[in-house]
Specification:
alpha+beta; oxygen-dependent coproporphyrinogen oxidase; 8 strands; 24% strand
């Protein structure tokens, strides 16, 4: 299969991709910010492979969507579909360090044993009250409303906690009718509210001093290094696309702030 995608803003072409609603909403809501494509090499815009037995091969497709705006350094989404059992959306929105803004992160994953849901506005400087308090004040009521309607996702590693806010929405949702209902009735409106909250902050953000910008940049780089080193999708991507391509994708596309 060949892809007609020639830049990162071109529409995703994966048929029946589980998480299409969420990327579609992101694209709609970013339209007012005059986005332009984020530069992504063609080898990462579209990637196809096969897995399983030679007698019954299954296709895996990965496409990468991306943009940038006056205040957003990179918004990018890794979209993957592997056979009928695995579907992934990994969306990270990275603000320019000239603005005191959090990261927006959404990891939605369908695996043979269920759906994993992770949604947050993630701090670059968790111990800096000027960076965090206004975000958490807005986000905590939204989180409390939706998390109470979802099963827990369980514990997260201690080393990861510095990269999540107190409003981290985290759940493991079953497959089938029950899970589909939770995704349409809880996850979709929760995502919309988190994204609206983030984009309101982007709209209102004022440029920082150079000293403050450098502090934010250092925090953002630390976040990106951690995400690149600990990316839980690394094993799956290596299995589908090989080690060299995967390492280049993770370090030069997904988490490219050095």
């Amino acid at each position: 299969m060949q892809s007609n995608r020639n830049n990162s803003l071109a529409p995703i072409s994966i048929n029946n991709w589980r998480w299409a609603y969420f990327l579609d909403e992101t694209i709609k809501k970013f339209s007012i910010f005059e986005p332009i494509p984020y530069p992504i090499n063609n080898d990462f815009l579209f990637r196809e492979s096969f897995f399983g037995s030679s007698s019954n091969p299954k296709k895996v497709i990965l496409e990468t969507w991306g943009l940038k705006t006056k205040k957003i350094r990179q918004a990018r989404c890794a979209c993957l579909q592997a056979g009928e059992t695995t579907s992934v959306m990994n969306l990270v929105i990275s603000p320019l360090n000239k603005y005191d803004l959090p990261f927006f992160g959404a990891d939605f994953v369908t695996l043979p044993n269920g759906n994993l849901i992770a949604l947050d506005l993630q701090p670059a400087l968790k111990d800096d009250i000027n960076h965090t308090q206004y975000v958490w004040d807005k986000l905590k009521p939204i989180h409390a409303n939706w998390q109470s309607k979802l099963p827990s996702g369980g514990d997260i590693p201690a080393e990861a906690k510095q990269y999540f806010s107190p409003a981290f929405l985290w759940s493991r949702i079953p497959l089938g009718e029950e899970g589909d209902k939770l995704i349409s009735q809880i996850i979709q409106p929760a995502f919309d509210q988190y994204l609206n909250c983030f984009l309101d902050m982007v709209r209102d953000a004022k440029m920082l001093s150079q000293e403050r910008s450098l502090k934010l940049l250092n925090g953002q780089k630390k976040y990106m290094r951690y995400r690149a080193e600990k990316d839980p999708a690394r094993g799956m991507l290596r299995r589908f696309f090989g080690d060299l391509w995967t390492e280049s994708y993770i370090n030069n596309i997904l988490f490219d702030l050095k």
